[in-house]
Design a protein that fits this description.
With about 375 residues, this protein is an alpha/beta fold. Helices cover about 30% and strands about 25% of the residues. Strand 4, helix 5 and strand 5 form a beta-alpha-beta unit. The structure holds pyridoxal-5'-phosphate.
Length: about 375
């Protein structure tokens, strides 16, 4: 599978950098659009926070997806990449006044509101600007996701969303407000979810909530179920596309949409994770007292997922066909957690070899920092080579 990288062209490049296989990205988007197209009323947004590289955003925008933003900066990035404001949804527990104003001025599709305090501020900002804010409430469904505890968001103990018991009173409050238009409900239960039962549980919860609102004759135009579909980090070559069919079928089967209702999705990781790799050079091979280290020129400042979430990434030496040896693959940063993988079997590795850290397209480049005063990694797409 080394063939997927233009390794010869890499020789002239400074490392580390992110490489995005835009053919795979386009295949992924085609697969999403094909599945979405099979279901009436399904609408797809891309969660900008997974990867906001302008070249990547461009490809996604061209495929017709909307944008799911969690900050004013992301709203700006989406607009710059060509997303229509009419396709932008904006979530987040802590929206600043300038971010709310930006969304109002640009006329975004929906604010996903997470508290009464925020609702009051949005109503007031909208009044000052002479606008009406379209609002959906993010409800905390108290549904667990079988994923890493740092990336569950839909449990009652998490900071996100409005408690279910406050849903009706919050909507009734919104319906009284002069500059708010209530349009729907929003949910997001977590990330890297591979168990479709978690999404089915969310659907059942939404069905209960919809029945409550129906009894009160409260009309809900839009249901937004967030993102969270996971990818196969173990087998990026064998399973480059997530199981979109099962994912969308789960919602189709379990969620009881009302006539005319639209169902919105906000996938991030599932769109971009597999198309991206962090490309790094081996600087040194060091025989430690009990281990052999491949020290590479990328560090946790370039890709923090292993240090932050104990995340697994497949690592490959894309310069060597030699028999494998076992290495701990580590970066240059002064932290013991600056480790990309322990006991990794790599083709025998030498200084100068290119190492690809796979499935790094989501929550990779966008989470890079300048820790240790390191430059930020660049991002290139296939067409750049
Ligand atoms: C992070 C996030 C997403 C995307 O999550 P993925 O796991 O990358 O699909 C979608 N919606 C909201 C509100 C989010 O915060």
């Amino acid at each position: 599978m080394k063939g997927i990288f233009p390794v010869d062209r890499f020789a002239a490049m400074d490392t580390p950098f992110y490489y995005y296989d835009t053919d795979l990205l386009r295949d992924t988007l085609r697969a999403i659009n094909a599945e979405v197209g099979r279901h009436d009323g399904f609408v797809m947004h891309y969660a900008i926070k997974a990867n906001a590289n302008p070249k990547v955003l461009n490809v996604i925008c061209q495929a017709g997806l909307g944008a799911d933003c969690v900050s004013g900066g992301e709203i700006r990035a989406s607009l710059q990449s060509g997303f229509s404001p009419r396709k932008i949804v904006y979530a987040g527990v802590g929206k600043s006044d300038w971010e709310i104003d930006l969304g109002l001025e640009k006329g975004i599709f929906c604010f996903n509101v997470e508290s009464v305090a925020e609702l009051e501020v949005i109503n007031e900002r909208a009044r000052l600007l002479g606008k009406t804010a379209p609002v959906a409430f993010r409800i905390n469904p108290d549904v667990g996701a079988h994923t890493h505890s740092n990336i569950t968001t839909g449990l009652a103990e998490n900071k996100f969303g409005i408690a279910m018991r406050d849903m009706v009173s919050t909507i009734e409050l919104a319906l009284q407000m002069s500059n708010i238009r209530f349009i729907g409900l929003h949910f997001h239960i977590g990330s890297q979810i591979l168990n479709m039962g978690d999404f089915a549980a969310l659907c059942n919860r939404i069905n209960d909530l919809q029945r409550q609102l129906e009894l009160l004759r409260i009309k809900v135009e839009h249901i937004n179920v967030g993102g969270g579909l996971g990818v196969d980090y173990e087998h990026p070559n064998r399973v480059p596309l997530p199981d979109f069919k099962s994912y969308f079928d789960t919602f189709s089967r379990h969620l009881q949409l009302r006539p005319g209702q639209q169902l919105h999705f906000e996938l991030g990781r599932a769109v971009v994770a597999q198309c991206g790799s962090l490309i790094t050079r081996c600087l040194y091979v060091k025989e430690g007292a009990v281990k052999r280290f491949a020290i590479v020129d990328a560090g946790m400042s370039d890709l923090i997922r292993p240090a932050l979430y104990q995340a697994y990434h497949k690592i490959e030496n894309i310069s060597s066909e030699a028999p494998t040896e076992t290495y701990d693959v580590v970066g240059p940063i002064c932290e013991s957690s600056d480790v990309f993988g322990k006991s990794v079997d790599l083709n025998a590795t030498h200084r100068g070899d290119f190492i690809a850290i796979r499935s790094a397209g989501a929550y990779g480049e966008i989470m890079a920092s300048v820790y240790n005063c390191r430059p930020l990694p660049r991002g290139y797409i296939k067409e750049d080579f």
